[in-house]
Amino acid sequence: MNRNKIKGLYCVIDSAWVELSVAGQWAEKLVQAGVEIIQLRAKDDGSRAVLEAACAVRAATKGKALFIVNDRLDIALLSGADGVHLGQDDIPLSEARRLMPSGIIGVSTHNLEEAREAESFGADYISFGPIFQTKTKKDADIPKGLEGLRALAPNIGIPIVAIGGITADSAVPVLEAGASSVAIISDILLAEDIGGRAAGIISRIRTALKER
Question: Does pTM top 0.85 for this prediction?
Answer without folding.
Answer: yes
